[in-house]
Task: inverse folding
């Protein structure tokens, strides 16, 4: 089992609909939330967020909201996207967990 999972409130969204994304810490130690990105169907980064670092305890979670915009603030197009979250442990090791969504 991985150290984290990414949970999204549903799999399919209308254009412009708010996406709620939750990072869940499955490890036995605390992790920093790290960075998260949204990739398009060609694995190109369309949005990156590097929030202030918060330490999440085991069996805890942290939620963010994505407004379906790219790094320039424009609405992304319809299609399939992968949300990739890269938390870090206190030693600095980075992990990766992801979830897929579709914007229709």
Result:
């Amino acid at each position: 089992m991985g150290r984290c999972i990414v949970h999204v409130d549903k799999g399919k969204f209308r254009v412009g609909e708010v996406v709620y994304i939750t990072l869940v810490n499955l490890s036995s130690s605390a992790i920093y939330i790290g960075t998260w990105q949204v990739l398009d169907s060609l694995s190109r980064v369309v949005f990156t967020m590097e929030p202030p670092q918060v330490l999440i305890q085991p069996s805890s979670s942290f939620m963010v909201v994505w407004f379906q915009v790219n790094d320039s603030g424009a609405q992304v197009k319809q299609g399939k996207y992968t949300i990739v979250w890269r938390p870090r442990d206190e030693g600095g090791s980075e992990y990766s967990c992801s979830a897929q969504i579709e914007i229709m």
